[in-house]
Design goal:
This protein is α/β, with parallel strands linked by helices and 409 residues long. The protein has 18 helices and 15 strands. The chain folds into 3 domains: 220 residues, Rossmann fold (3-Layer(aba) Sandwich), CATH 3.40.50.620; 76 residues, Tyrosyl-Transfer RNA Synthetase; 71 residues, Structural Genomics Hypothetical 15.5 Kd Protein In mrcA-pckA Intergenic Region, Chain A (Roll), CATH 3.10.290.10. A hairpin with a 2-residue loop joins strand 7 and strand 8. Helix 12 crosses helix 16. The protein starts with 6 loop residues before the first helix and ends with a strand. One of its GO terms (cellular component) is cytosol. Keywords: Aminoacyl-tRNA synthetase, ATP-binding, Cytoplasm, Ligase, Nucleotide-binding, Protein biosynthesis, RNA-binding. Catalyzes the attachment of tyrosine to tRNA(Tyr) in a two-step reaction: tyrosine is first activated by ATP to form Tyr-AMP and then transferred to the acceptor end of tRNA(Tyr).
Protein backbone atom coordinates (compact mmCIF):
# COMPACT_ATOMS: atom_id res chain seq x y z
CA UNK A 1 0.00 0.00 0.00
CA UNK A 2 1.31 3.45 -0.91
CA UNK A 3 2.43 5.78 1.86
CA UNK A 4 1.00 8.71 -0.14
CA UNK A 5 -2.53 10.10 -0.07
CA UNK A 6 -2.58 12.12 -3.30
CA UNK A 7 -3.39 10.54 -6.65
CA UNK A 8 -0.31 12.24 -8.08
CA UNK A 9 2.37 10.73 -5.86
CA UNK A 10 0.62 7.37 -5.68
CA UNK A 11 0.49 7.19 -9.48
CA UNK A 12 4.15 8.21 -9.84
CA UNK A 13 5.22 5.66 -7.25
CA UNK A 14 3.13 2.81 -8.67
CA UNK A 15 4.44 3.36 -12.21
CA UNK A 16 8.11 3.36 -11.16
CA UNK A 17 8.86 7.06 -11.62
CA UNK A 18 9.96 7.88 -8.06
CA UNK A 19 13.50 8.69 -6.94
CA UNK A 20 13.81 11.88 -4.85
CA UNK A 21 11.35 14.50 -3.52
CA UNK A 22 12.38 17.64 -1.66
CA UNK A 23 9.47 17.57 0.82
CA UNK A 24 7.26 14.58 0.08
CA UNK A 25 4.73 15.21 2.85
CA UNK A 26 4.12 18.84 1.89
CA UNK A 27 3.89 18.06 -1.83
CA UNK A 28 1.49 15.18 -1.12
CA UNK A 29 -0.75 17.51 0.92
CA UNK A 30 -0.60 20.23 -1.76
CA UNK A 31 -1.56 17.78 -4.52
CA UNK A 32 -4.64 16.74 -2.51
CA UNK A 33 -5.70 20.32 -1.94
CA UNK A 34 -5.30 22.01 -5.34
CA UNK A 35 -4.25 21.68 -8.98
CA UNK A 36 -0.45 21.70 -8.97
CA UNK A 37 1.41 23.23 -11.89
CA UNK A 38 4.67 21.43 -12.63
CA UNK A 39 7.27 21.64 -15.35
CA UNK A 40 10.09 19.79 -17.06
CA UNK A 41 12.70 21.49 -19.21
CA UNK A 42 13.97 20.16 -22.55
CA UNK A 43 16.92 21.78 -24.31
CA UNK A 44 16.42 21.63 -28.12
CA UNK A 45 19.93 20.44 -28.97
CA UNK A 46 18.73 18.08 -31.75
CA UNK A 47 15.82 18.06 -34.26
CA UNK A 48 14.13 15.26 -32.29
CA UNK A 49 13.95 14.01 -28.73
CA UNK A 50 14.95 10.39 -28.04
CA UNK A 51 13.51 7.74 -25.74
CA UNK A 52 15.79 8.88 -22.92
CA UNK A 53 13.68 12.06 -22.93
CA UNK A 54 10.49 10.01 -23.07
CA UNK A 55 10.81 9.14 -19.37
CA UNK A 56 10.62 12.87 -18.53
CA UNK A 57 7.68 13.42 -20.88
CA UNK A 58 5.92 10.59 -19.04
CA UNK A 59 6.34 12.54 -15.77
CA UNK A 60 4.29 15.34 -17.32
CA UNK A 61 1.76 12.84 -18.65
CA UNK A 62 1.33 11.35 -15.15
CA UNK A 63 0.97 14.87 -13.74
CA UNK A 64 -1.87 15.54 -16.18
CA UNK A 65 -3.46 12.13 -15.62
CA UNK A 66 -3.66 12.91 -11.90
CA UNK A 67 -5.53 16.15 -12.65
CA UNK A 68 -2.64 18.63 -12.51
CA UNK A 69 -1.20 21.06 -15.05
CA UNK A 70 2.01 20.28 -16.96
CA UNK A 71 4.29 22.89 -18.48
CA UNK A 72 6.81 21.94 -21.15
CA UNK A 73 9.75 24.34 -21.08
CA UNK A 74 11.62 24.50 -24.35
CA UNK A 75 15.13 25.60 -23.43
CA UNK A 76 15.65 28.01 -26.28
CA UNK A 77 17.60 30.21 -23.86
CA UNK A 78 19.43 27.61 -21.78
CA UNK A 79 20.42 25.65 -24.90
CA UNK A 80 22.49 28.67 -25.94
CA UNK A 81 24.66 27.91 -22.92
CA UNK A 82 24.53 24.10 -22.58
CA UNK A 83 23.85 21.94 -19.55
CA UNK A 84 27.14 20.45 -18.26
CA UNK A 85 25.23 17.67 -16.40
CA UNK A 86 26.51 14.27 -17.48
CA UNK A 87 28.71 15.79 -20.20
CA UNK A 88 32.46 15.22 -20.56
CA UNK A 89 33.00 18.15 -22.88
CA UNK A 90 31.57 21.51 -23.83
CA UNK A 91 28.48 21.36 -26.05
CA UNK A 92 28.62 22.75 -29.54
CA UNK A 93 27.09 26.21 -29.80
CA UNK A 94 23.88 26.27 -31.86
CA UNK A 95 22.68 29.18 -33.98
CA UNK A 96 19.34 30.92 -33.38
CA UNK A 97 18.06 29.41 -36.63
CA UNK A 98 19.09 25.89 -35.67
CA UNK A 99 17.49 26.19 -32.23
CA UNK A 100 14.24 27.45 -33.77
CA UNK A 101 14.28 24.56 -36.26
CA UNK A 102 14.92 22.02 -33.50
CA UNK A 103 12.08 23.41 -31.37
CA UNK A 104 9.71 23.11 -34.31
CA UNK A 105 10.74 19.49 -34.82
CA UNK A 106 10.36 18.60 -31.14
CA UNK A 107 6.93 20.16 -30.54
CA UNK A 108 5.04 17.34 -32.24
CA UNK A 109 6.18 14.74 -29.70
CA UNK A 110 4.57 16.65 -26.84
CA UNK A 111 1.38 17.26 -28.79
CA UNK A 112 0.94 13.50 -29.30
CA UNK A 113 1.46 12.60 -25.63
CA UNK A 114 0.02 15.53 -23.66
CA UNK A 115 -3.33 17.32 -23.94
CA UNK A 116 -2.99 21.00 -24.84
CA UNK A 117 -6.22 22.94 -24.24
CA UNK A 118 -7.73 25.73 -22.14
CA UNK A 119 -8.89 23.46 -19.30
CA UNK A 120 -7.62 23.76 -15.75
CA UNK A 121 -4.99 21.09 -16.36
CA UNK A 122 -4.33 21.68 -20.07
CA UNK A 123 -0.64 21.56 -20.91
CA UNK A 124 1.40 24.65 -21.81
CA UNK A 125 4.50 24.86 -23.99
CA UNK A 126 6.77 27.81 -23.20
CA UNK A 127 10.21 28.88 -24.46
CA UNK A 128 12.54 30.15 -21.72
CA UNK A 129 14.29 32.32 -24.31
CA UNK A 130 11.28 34.63 -23.89
CA UNK A 131 12.73 35.88 -20.59
CA UNK A 132 16.37 34.76 -20.52
CA UNK A 133 17.36 36.69 -23.64
CA UNK A 134 15.78 39.85 -22.23
CA UNK A 135 17.67 39.55 -18.95
CA UNK A 136 20.49 42.09 -18.58
CA UNK A 137 23.82 40.73 -17.39
CA UNK A 138 24.28 43.31 -14.63
CA UNK A 139 20.66 42.76 -13.57
CA UNK A 140 21.31 39.02 -13.33
CA UNK A 141 24.46 39.57 -11.28
CA UNK A 142 22.76 41.97 -8.85
CA UNK A 143 19.40 40.23 -8.43
CA UNK A 144 20.32 36.56 -8.69
CA UNK A 145 24.09 36.31 -8.25
CA UNK A 146 24.16 37.00 -4.48
CA UNK A 147 22.06 33.87 -3.86
CA UNK A 148 24.72 31.52 -5.32
CA UNK A 149 28.07 30.77 -3.72
CA UNK A 150 30.98 29.42 -5.73
CA UNK A 151 31.71 27.02 -2.85
CA UNK A 152 28.30 25.39 -3.23
CA UNK A 153 28.29 25.41 -7.03
CA UNK A 154 31.58 23.50 -7.02
CA UNK A 155 29.97 20.66 -5.05
CA UNK A 156 27.34 19.85 -7.70
CA UNK A 157 28.01 16.68 -9.69
CA UNK A 158 27.73 18.47 -13.05
CA UNK A 159 30.66 20.70 -12.08
CA UNK A 160 32.61 18.40 -9.76
CA UNK A 161 32.79 15.49 -12.21
CA UNK A 162 34.16 17.66 -15.00
CA UNK A 163 36.80 19.22 -12.72
CA UNK A 164 37.78 15.88 -11.14
CA UNK A 165 38.55 14.59 -14.64
CA UNK A 166 40.56 17.76 -15.33
CA UNK A 167 38.29 18.51 -18.27
CA UNK A 168 37.49 22.13 -19.08
CA UNK A 169 34.30 23.69 -17.76
CA UNK A 170 33.67 27.02 -19.46
CA UNK A 171 32.39 30.07 -17.65
CA UNK A 172 29.28 30.04 -19.83
CA UNK A 173 28.43 26.47 -18.75
CA UNK A 174 29.07 27.38 -15.13
CA UNK A 175 26.21 29.86 -15.46
CA UNK A 176 23.75 27.20 -16.67
CA UNK A 177 22.54 26.31 -13.16
CA UNK A 178 21.85 29.99 -12.44
CA UNK A 179 19.78 30.33 -15.61
CA UNK A 180 17.80 27.19 -14.86
CA UNK A 181 17.13 28.34 -11.31
CA UNK A 182 15.89 31.64 -12.71
CA UNK A 183 13.44 29.70 -14.90
CA UNK A 184 11.76 28.34 -11.77
CA UNK A 185 11.52 31.83 -10.27
CA UNK A 186 9.82 33.19 -13.43
CA UNK A 187 7.46 30.22 -13.75
CA UNK A 188 6.41 30.52 -10.12
CA UNK A 189 5.72 34.23 -10.50
CA UNK A 190 3.96 34.06 -13.87
CA UNK A 191 2.16 30.69 -13.74
CA UNK A 192 2.01 29.77 -10.06
CA UNK A 193 4.29 26.82 -10.78
CA UNK A 194 5.11 24.90 -7.58
CA UNK A 195 6.87 21.79 -8.91
CA UNK A 196 9.86 21.01 -11.09
CA UNK A 197 10.36 17.45 -12.28
CA UNK A 198 13.23 15.74 -14.05
CA UNK A 199 15.70 12.88 -14.14
CA UNK A 200 17.93 12.27 -11.13
CA UNK A 201 20.87 13.97 -12.89
CA UNK A 202 18.90 17.24 -12.61
CA UNK A 203 18.62 17.14 -8.80
CA UNK A 204 21.26 19.84 -8.22
CA UNK A 205 19.72 22.20 -10.78
CA UNK A 206 16.24 21.65 -9.31
CA UNK A 207 17.39 22.33 -5.74
CA UNK A 208 19.02 25.57 -6.90
CA UNK A 209 15.70 26.77 -8.32
CA UNK A 210 13.83 25.87 -5.14
CA UNK A 211 16.29 27.81 -3.00
CA UNK A 212 16.18 30.84 -5.32
CA UNK A 213 12.35 30.99 -5.13
CA UNK A 214 12.53 30.85 -1.33
CA UNK A 215 15.34 33.40 -0.94
CA UNK A 216 14.03 36.04 -3.35
CA UNK A 217 10.22 35.69 -3.06
CA UNK A 218 9.83 33.61 0.11
CA UNK A 219 7.85 31.02 -1.87
CA UNK A 220 7.78 27.33 -0.99
CA UNK A 221 8.16 25.20 -4.12
CA UNK A 222 9.08 21.57 -4.67
CA UNK A 223 11.38 19.29 -6.63
CA UNK A 224 10.86 15.75 -7.86
CA UNK A 225 13.17 13.40 -9.74
CA UNK A 226 12.68 10.02 -11.39
CA UNK A 227 15.46 7.44 -11.54
CA UNK A 228 17.64 7.50 -14.62
CA UNK A 229 16.53 4.47 -16.57
CA UNK A 230 19.04 1.81 -17.46
CA UNK A 231 18.43 -1.49 -19.18
CA UNK A 232 19.04 -4.83 -17.49
CA UNK A 233 22.35 -5.10 -19.39
CA UNK A 234 23.49 -1.85 -17.74
CA UNK A 235 23.24 0.30 -20.88
CA UNK A 236 21.70 3.77 -20.66
CA UNK A 237 18.14 4.05 -21.92
CA UNK A 238 17.77 5.89 -25.20
CA UNK A 239 20.73 4.43 -27.04
CA UNK A 240 21.25 1.34 -29.16
CA UNK A 241 24.30 -0.03 -30.92
CA UNK A 242 23.18 1.99 -33.93
CA UNK A 243 22.69 5.28 -32.09
CA UNK A 244 19.83 7.17 -30.46
CA UNK A 245 16.26 5.86 -30.65
CA UNK A 246 14.59 9.04 -31.89
CA UNK A 247 10.94 9.92 -31.30
CA UNK A 248 10.45 11.61 -34.69
CA UNK A 249 9.57 9.56 -37.76
CA UNK A 250 11.98 11.48 -40.01
CA UNK A 251 14.86 10.57 -37.71
CA UNK A 252 13.94 6.89 -37.24
CA UNK A 253 11.33 4.85 -39.16
CA UNK A 254 8.36 3.56 -37.15
CA UNK A 255 9.35 -0.05 -37.79
CA UNK A 256 12.80 0.46 -36.24
CA UNK A 257 11.23 2.30 -33.31
CA UNK A 258 8.73 -0.54 -32.76
CA UNK A 259 11.43 -3.15 -33.13
CA UNK A 260 13.59 -1.53 -30.43
CA UNK A 261 10.82 -2.09 -27.87
CA UNK A 262 10.05 -5.56 -29.23
CA UNK A 263 13.69 -6.51 -28.56
CA UNK A 264 13.51 -5.47 -24.89
CA UNK A 265 15.35 -7.73 -22.46
CA UNK A 266 12.95 -10.14 -20.70
CA UNK A 267 13.98 -8.63 -17.35
CA UNK A 268 12.93 -5.11 -18.40
CA UNK A 269 9.46 -5.79 -19.81
CA UNK A 270 7.48 -5.14 -16.63
CA UNK A 271 9.45 -2.02 -15.73
CA UNK A 272 9.09 -0.51 -19.20
CA UNK A 273 5.36 -1.30 -19.36
CA UNK A 274 4.86 0.57 -16.07
CA UNK A 275 6.95 3.59 -17.01
CA UNK A 276 6.21 4.02 -20.71
CA UNK A 277 2.60 2.85 -21.14
CA UNK A 278 -0.85 3.17 -19.58
CA UNK A 279 -1.43 -0.60 -19.51
CA UNK A 280 -3.22 -1.33 -16.18
CA UNK A 281 -0.97 -2.59 -13.40
CA UNK A 282 -2.96 -5.82 -13.03
CA UNK A 283 -2.40 -6.63 -16.70
CA UNK A 284 1.31 -5.73 -16.42
CA UNK A 285 1.66 -8.16 -13.50
CA UNK A 286 0.20 -10.89 -15.73
CA UNK A 287 2.39 -10.03 -18.70
CA UNK A 288 5.68 -9.83 -16.83
CA UNK A 289 5.00 -13.22 -15.22
CA UNK A 290 4.94 -14.94 -18.61
CA UNK A 291 7.80 -17.36 -19.18
CA UNK A 292 9.70 -18.84 -22.08
CA UNK A 293 8.61 -17.77 -25.54
CA UNK A 294 5.33 -16.39 -24.13
CA UNK A 295 7.19 -13.32 -22.77
CA UNK A 296 7.38 -12.23 -26.41
CA UNK A 297 3.65 -11.53 -26.25
CA UNK A 298 4.37 -8.98 -23.52
CA UNK A 299 7.09 -7.41 -25.65
CA UNK A 300 4.67 -7.01 -28.55
CA UNK A 301 2.20 -5.27 -26.21
CA UNK A 302 5.02 -2.96 -25.06
CA UNK A 303 6.10 -2.17 -28.63
CA UNK A 304 2.52 -1.56 -29.78
CA UNK A 305 1.59 0.68 -26.84
CA UNK A 306 4.71 2.87 -26.94
CA UNK A 307 4.65 3.19 -30.73
CA UNK A 308 0.94 4.08 -30.64
CA UNK A 309 1.56 6.82 -28.06
CA UNK A 310 4.65 8.31 -29.74
CA UNK A 311 3.95 7.72 -33.46
CA UNK A 312 0.18 7.15 -33.60
CA UNK A 313 -2.09 4.11 -33.96
CA UNK A 314 -1.56 3.62 -37.70
CA UNK A 315 2.23 3.49 -37.26
CA UNK A 316 1.91 0.86 -34.52
CA UNK A 317 -0.42 -1.33 -36.59
CA UNK A 318 1.78 -1.05 -39.69
CA UNK A 319 5.02 -1.78 -37.79
CA UNK A 320 3.48 -4.80 -36.06
CA UNK A 321 2.18 -6.13 -39.40
CA UNK A 322 5.62 -5.69 -40.99
CA UNK A 323 7.24 -7.58 -38.11
CA UNK A 324 4.69 -10.38 -38.42
CA UNK A 325 5.24 -10.71 -42.15
CA UNK A 326 9.02 -10.47 -41.87
CA UNK A 327 9.56 -12.88 -39.02
CA UNK A 328 6.59 -15.21 -39.11
CA UNK A 329 5.65 -15.17 -42.77
CA UNK A 330 9.12 -14.99 -44.25
CA UNK A 331 8.09 -12.04 -46.38
CA UNK A 332 9.15 -8.41 -46.56
CA UNK A 333 6.75 -5.99 -44.90
CA UNK A 334 5.89 -2.54 -46.18
CA UNK A 335 7.59 -0.64 -43.33
CA UNK A 336 11.10 -1.98 -43.96
CA UNK A 337 13.73 0.45 -45.28
CA UNK A 338 14.05 0.27 -49.06
CA UNK A 339 17.06 0.74 -51.35
CA UNK A 340 17.08 0.84 -55.14
CA UNK A 341 20.19 -0.72 -56.72
CA UNK A 342 19.27 0.30 -60.27
CA UNK A 343 19.54 -1.77 -63.41
CA UNK A 344 23.32 -2.18 -63.00
CA UNK A 345 23.05 -3.52 -59.43
CA UNK A 346 25.25 -2.70 -56.43
CA UNK A 347 27.94 -4.57 -54.51
CA UNK A 348 26.69 -6.14 -51.27
CA UNK A 349 29.08 -4.14 -49.09
CA UNK A 350 27.86 -0.86 -50.58
CA UNK A 351 24.23 -1.95 -50.09
CA UNK A 352 24.77 -2.71 -46.40
CA UNK A 353 26.58 0.57 -45.81
CA UNK A 354 24.08 2.65 -47.80
CA UNK A 355 21.24 1.22 -45.69
CA UNK A 356 23.14 2.07 -42.51
CA UNK A 357 23.36 -1.59 -41.51
CA UNK A 358 27.16 -1.29 -41.42
CA UNK A 359 29.34 1.75 -40.84
CA UNK A 360 31.81 0.89 -43.61
CA UNK A 361 32.56 -1.61 -46.38
CA UNK A 362 35.15 -3.12 -44.04
CA UNK A 363 32.50 -3.85 -41.43
CA UNK A 364 30.26 -5.23 -44.19
CA UNK A 365 33.02 -7.68 -45.19
CA UNK A 366 33.33 -8.87 -41.59
CA UNK A 367 29.58 -9.45 -41.32
CA UNK A 368 29.60 -11.41 -44.58
CA UNK A 369 32.51 -13.52 -43.32
CA UNK A 370 30.54 -14.23 -40.12
CA UNK A 371 27.62 -15.56 -42.22
CA UNK A 372 25.29 -12.84 -40.94
CA UNK A 373 24.14 -11.53 -44.33
CA UNK A 374 21.29 -13.13 -46.30
CA UNK A 375 19.47 -12.17 -49.50
CA UNK A 376 15.98 -13.66 -49.74
CA UNK A 377 16.99 -15.91 -46.82
CA UNK A 378 20.03 -17.29 -48.72
CA UNK A 379 23.47 -16.67 -47.14
CA UNK A 380 25.83 -14.34 -49.00
CA UNK A 381 29.46 -15.49 -48.68
CA UNK A 382 31.28 -13.38 -51.30
CA UNK A 383 32.22 -9.81 -50.24
CA UNK A 384 32.12 -8.71 -53.90
CA UNK A 385 28.66 -10.18 -54.54
CA UNK A 386 26.65 -8.04 -56.97
CA UNK A 387 23.09 -7.44 -55.78
CA UNK A 388 20.75 -7.30 -58.77
CA UNK A 389 17.00 -6.93 -58.35
CA UNK A 390 14.92 -8.38 -61.19
CA UNK A 391 12.39 -6.06 -62.83
CA UNK A 392 9.20 -5.99 -60.75
CA UNK A 393 10.56 -8.19 -57.93
CA UNK A 394 11.67 -7.04 -54.48
CA UNK A 395 14.39 -8.84 -52.54
CA UNK A 396 14.67 -9.08 -48.77
CA UNK A 397 18.12 -8.33 -47.36
CA UNK A 398 18.85 -9.41 -43.78
CA UNK A 399 21.75 -8.71 -41.43
CA UNK A 400 21.43 -11.04 -38.49
CA UNK A 401 17.99 -11.64 -37.05
CA UNK A 402 16.95 -8.03 -36.41
CA UNK A 403 17.92 -5.92 -39.42
CA UNK A 404 15.94 -6.28 -42.61
CA UNK A 405 15.47 -4.18 -45.74
CA UNK A 406 13.87 -4.35 -49.16
CA UNK A 407 16.11 -4.14 -52.24
CA UNK A 408 14.42 -2.99 -55.45
CA UNK A 409 15.41 -2.35 -59.08
Amino acid sequence: MSEFQSDLLRLLQERGHMHQITDAGALDALAMKEVVTGYVGFDPTAPSLHIGNLASIMLLKRLQQAGHRPIVIMGGGTAKVGDPSGKDETRQMLTEEKLASNIEGIKGSFEKILRFDDSENGALLINNDDWLSKLGYVELLRDVGPHFTINRMLTFDSVKTRLDREQPLTFIEFNYMIMQAYDYLVLNREYGCRLQLGGSDQWGNIVNGIELCRRIDGKEVYGYTAPLITRADGAKMGKSVDGAIWLNEDQLPAYDFWQYWRNTDDRDVGKFLRIFTDVPLVEIARLEALEGSEINDAKVVLANEVTKMVRGGDAAVSAAATAQETFAGGGAGNDLPTLSVGAAGMRIGAVLTELGFTASNGEAKRKIAEGAVKLDDQPITEPGFLVEAPEGKDLKLSLGKKKHAIVTR
